[in-house]
Amino acid sequence: MNAEQRRAWFTVSIGSICLAAYLIVAPFVGVLPAFAVFGLFGLAGLTPLIGRGEPMDERDHSIARRATLGGAVTSYMAVILADMGIWFYVYGWKGQQQVSVHTLSLVTLMACIVLFFARALAILALYGRSTEAESA
Amino acid sequence: MPEITNCIRRLRFEHGEMTQEALANRVGVTRQTIIALEAGKYTPSLSLAFRLARTFNRRVEEVFQFRADGDSPASRSTI
């Protein structure tokens, strides 16, 4: 397992811990306040420290590029879908509604989490396909 | 779908049963990349293709072969 894969596993672990913590905390403090646990995802910012200095070859760079693109596209789609939902809530359905200004920060948080999480999953998938058939 | 195949595995064995690790070190990539190349799951850059070919003292087209849809061995040999 190379440095990029270890970083991806770290990100996926942090994301899974956040989700589990949210599901545990939400019944006690409420659905919206429990979103605070996703602040733990900030720990994903430590990933560059994993495997620092380990060399990357052209295939590693190519996979990292494709995974980043995949993460960005997924994040973009998530934001657009969330915005469509908010728009529908405000102007459709029961007429004009209001949304909290905090919704903006939630959407931004979601966009960042989706970007990093989807990128990590894409890295694991792209490396995973070619790690069979190892022989000397 | 066009496909690039290679005979790196055979060439390694023809060159004193060179290990994937040794080949990886000589061309400056990781062993995982050599594994992916041999399995046909990664198409190398032109630069890496030349480095591989030089390692085996072959021309690039002797190491890598291009096969488009509909190509058969017979049709290739007539060109």
Textual characterization of the structure:
The complex is a heterodimer of chains A (136) and B (79). Chain A has 3 helices and no strands. Chain A is mostly helical and 136 residues long. Chain A is globular, with a radius of gyration of 18 Å. Mean pLDDT of chain A is 88; it is low at 132-136. Chain B is mostly helical and 79 residues long. Chain B is 54% helix and 10% strand. Chain B has helices spanning 8-14, 20-27, 31-38, 46-55, 60-63, 73-78, and strands at residues 3-6, 64-67. A two-stranded antiparallel sheet of chain B has the order 1-2. In chain B, helix 2 crosses helix 3 (31-38). The longest helix of chain B is centred in the middle third of the chain and has 10 residues, at 46-55. The interface between A and B is medium-sized, with 15 and 18 residues.
Concise overview:
Chain A has 136 residues and is an all-alpha fold.
